[in-house]
């Protein structure tokens, strides 16, 4: 089968009795090929997406009507903790780094990552981190006293996490699982930085790097700076809980605010660690479907570097309500607002790329359009929240939840879907169904807006976040019902997507090596690419090497 995926080949050969299942599992479990590792990251993340999605639906069912007793308060606390932690650490980061793993070496004309074994190690330790988090559910009373999931929120504020307030081991599962996955994330970041710096093919100067590679490079640098404080905080918390240290124990001279600083010095850059790869996908997809080179490449690179730096210095906008004092708050208000400048440059450049282009609204492109629109709105509510007095009113309300889901779902998840439709033919050799793709898009878009547009309203009406139920007559019930209905739409859309992923693997149209008429190097390889990527190491002369090959009459290299 010339056009089979590695996965399908494995399935076929196993079914035909040519290879025992064990051998196939062994091959994947021991692989150091960046493409297989990338796929395993994505597969793992999709499983966690389903799990965390179920947790979200359970919460929305509970909140759909007032005075509901579908779920107990304890379980509700566990659900939002597990949902948030899973989505950020075991869905978001793995799926994005999965794409990075798959694409970065291909796009710079390399045969693999710089450290293939470290790459495998990083994947497995992250996967074990995720398993450990969920092991807390199955631990039951016997095993080291686990048996209930963590319930302290995804940012686990002190002093709630102290042994007195959170006895048992669920908080320890949370801590250790983030410690492990943090090590994996650092390993992957190290690999991406080294690969990008050292393994580029001939002619691939830094200013000819595909923007995707630039964005993963900067994301990885941010990982170095952000994960350290997280790891330190997890170790301190463990010391507090196990040997009676008092880092975060106010009564013994520790500081609860110290935890917040540690957590958000990690937590805010984390937001950008998730969003920059999403930008990366949009940077590749929008120009190809507008049939134009990206507008303002150097400005895009500069804006990314600026976002990287500034986002490291805005963490205390998560702490306006703590009482940092006027000087502290003022600094963080301005630092936060300044980010809108480079972000605005990016939005402008995407629009300028689309402007006057021959736009082709295939599924990857429509998801990018959704991304642009929703990211703009998320940025606007972000600016609103960055004004400290406004934040004081709404900090612990549903307005904030609506804001950050606009970023996390409206921007990041939309860009991810675009990436799936765009690179699927490269990975599997087959196209995803456009019809199902359009169904997916519209169902998900309607669901997204029903859920998150209307979630701002109960927030403005004073509905706090993390409440398990509420009484009737406060004007919240209609909005919560709409929000719940929207969530169902999103589920149906996602089911279309998963069905499309599986179905297209067997039935999809054969793609050929370059179905979108694109211009970056991964499209120069067969679909799927062989394990060594390139038989002959490519040489490039411009930012769009494949364009040069296809258009000898008007190559970019003439203008460089
Ligand atoms: C780019 C992707 C972004 C993501 C993923 C994101 C995510 C989040 C998250 C998870 C929170 C919740 C904090 C909490 O639970 O207390 C939050 C709060 C906040 N975000 Fe964003 N955000 C993003 C962009 C922005 C932007 C562009 C701004 C402003 C220009 C902004 C300003 C804020 C502020 C001020 C808060 C504090 C809310 C509070 O503590 O009450 N965010 N964001
Ligand atoms: Cu932040």
Overview of the molecule:
The chain has 560 residues and is mostly helical. The chain has a single domain (35-558), classed as Cytochrome c oxidase-like, subunit I domain (Cytochrome C Oxidase, Chain A, Up-down Bundle). Helix content is 67%, strand content 0%. The protein is built from 17 helices and no strands. The protein is globular, with a radius of gyration of 24 Å. It binds protoporphyrin IX containing FE (HEM) and copper (II) ion. Protoporphyrin IX containing FE binds at residues 271, 274-275, 317-318, 336, 339-340, 379, 382-383, 385-386, 391, 395, 400, 403-404, 407-408.
The tally of helices reads: 17
Q: Identify the bound ligands.
A: protoporphyrin IX containing FE, copper (II) ion
Largest sheet: none
**Helix content, binned percent:** 55-70%
Features:
single chain; 560 residues; mainly alpha; globular; binds protoporphyrin IX containing FE; binds copper (II) ion
Summed up, what is this model?
The protein contains 17 helices and no strands. By secondary structure, it is mainly α.
Give the helices and strands, then pairings.
Elements: H1 6-15, H2 21-29, H3 34-64, H4 73-107, H5 116-138, H6 170-198, H7 211-243, H8 256-290, H9 297-311, H10 326-338, H11 340-354, H12 363-386, H13 388-394, H14 398-428, H15 434-460, H16 477-507, H17 545-550
Helix pairs in contact: 3-4, 3-5, 3-16, 4-5, 4-6, 4-8, 5-6, 6-7, 7-8, 7-9, 8-9, 8-12, 8-14, 9-11, 12-14, 12-15, 14-15, 15-16
The chain binds protoporphyrin IX containing FE and copper (II) ion (CU).
The site of protoporphyrin IX containing FE has 20 residues, from α8, α12 and α14.
